[in-house]
Amino acid sequence: MTIDGDGLYLVAGIALLVGAVLPRLLRRYAVSAPIAFLSAGLLLGAFVDRSRLSPITEPELTEHLAELTLLLSLMGVGLAIDRPIGWRRWSATWRLLLVALPACIAAVAGVGWLLGLAPATALLVGAVLAPTDPVLASDVQVQGPSTGAGAEPEEDDEIRLALTSEAGLNDGLAFPFVYAAIFAATKGTVGGWGLEWIAWHLIGKMVIGVAVGVGAGWLLGKMAFAAPLPTLRLSNFREPVMALAMTLGVYGLAEVLHGYGFVAVFVAALTIRAAERSHDFHGELHGFLEQLEHIFTWGILLLLGVAITGGLLTPLTWGGAAIGLLLVLVVRPLVAWFSLAGTRLRQSERWVTAAFGVRGVGSVFYLAYAGSEFSADLPWLWATVGFCIALSVLVHGVAATPMMRMVERRREG
User: Fold this and answer.
1) Which residues contact 14 (CB under 8 A, 6 or more apart)?
2) Residue 154: its pLDDT value, please?
3) Which of 122, 293, 306, 361 could pair with 109 as two cysteines, CB 3.0-4.6 Å apart?
4) How far is Cα of residue 119 from the mean position of the Cα atoms in its chain?
5) pLDDT of residue 1
6) Angle between helix 347-355 and 332-339 (nearest 10)
7) What is the model's pLDDT at position 194?
């Protein structure tokens, strides 16, 4: 049975209500919100016209919806981090970004090549699936900014800090490798585009993104907390919607200047937080962004569930399934565990940090962004990415609560 028109609102409303209530009812059984909403989407797919709700048929809508969700999440997690950025303070983060991320890309691309994929397609799969997700990993990330007179900016949990800061930066850091896959598919051998890629897409756009983030964040911080006239001080307005204005403004500026907007937004959030760490305006901004992010995340998961019911996974091969299983269960845990050697994480903390490389909305965005250059393999690519995201939602959603409780018990012991 297919429902059209007004009936769709009823079914979508019921699905959202079930997805919102079910995790709380089944909290003791470790059913996370992403699992509930993906499941609700699978049920919703039985009642709607699935042909119009596929990322393959609606790539632009998919790209922009995932893009906006990521932006909200990146600004939110940047404002939530208490610990100031630094080379030693964020040592685990730099290991995950500079060692684990490229190693995961290389490993997944290598597996894809061994399975018979063209080099450009294998590289795209690695780049799309490599970044961990700032959206679906809320159960293992910092929960919000500590504000007020008694705030302790150095008290971020090591696991949560590492996973949050990694997810905040690696969406932007994966972009150069997505471009490399596109160039390999459209420009031929690396000799024809390698120098341009290193100089501009790997370094130049990254530098612009960081510079825009620092500059815009500094200016917004001054406007929010230190404007000379109280009537111009943004923190006096108590308008959380300013968080959305900041997010879109910084992203738009970075993109206009041809930098990486994802990097700019996260860096701007860190810079704004550094302007006045204890002010409770940070909490208001973060809370507003978190609510918006939840709405968009639920929508994406519902649509992903609908697409799966509509046959998104039909082109999935044993090779595609093997890539997803190896990445979630083997490649990411092992690569991240080795990359974290020498940090101040305890052994159990190191394993938990390595295991939670959640895949999600970032992968949806990158594949929607680059998919037009890989039209021949697009159904298989979406099937593989969709399978990997669903697997990650299930595995990490079930494991998050008990594993974090285990770590807390060991710390207390």
Assistant:
1) none
2) 44
3) 122
4) 25
5) 47
6) 140
7) 92
What local confidence, expressed as pLDDT, does residue 153 receive? Answer: 46
DSSP assignment of 329-372, as one string?
Answer: IIIHHHHHHHHTTTSS--HHHHHHHHH-----HHHHHHHHHHGG
For the chain, what is the largest distance between any 2 Cα atoms, rounded to a whole number of angstroms? 64
Residue 24 pLDDT = 65
Q: What is the pLDDT of residue 20?
A: 66
Q: In the block, which residue shows the tokens 């044993």?
A: 318
Domains of the chain: 59-299+315-375 (1.20.1530.20)
Q: Is 30 exposed, middle or buried (0-12, 13-18, 19+ CB in 10 A)?
A: middle
How many other C-beta atoms can be found within 10 angstroms of the C-beta atom of residue 330? 12
Q: What is the DSSP string of 211-240?
A: HHHHHHHHHHHHHHH--SSGGG-HHHH--T
- 22: closest CA among 46, 9, 39, 6? 39
130: three-class secondary structure by DSSP:
coil
Query: Which residue ranges in the chain fall short of pLDDT 50?
Result: 1, 149-151, 153-154
Task: List, as one string, the DSSP characters of 87-102.
Answer: TTTTHHHHHIIIIIHH
How far from chain centre, in Å, is Cα 282?
21
User: What number of helices (H) and strands (E) belong to the chain?
Assistant: 19, 0
Q: Are 401 and 138 in contact (CB under 8 A)?
A: no
Cα–Cα distance between 213 and 266 in angstroms, integer? Answer: 7
- How far apart CA 88 and CA 205 sit, in angstroms, is 25
CB 167 within 8 A of CB 293: no
* First-last CA distance in the chain: 55
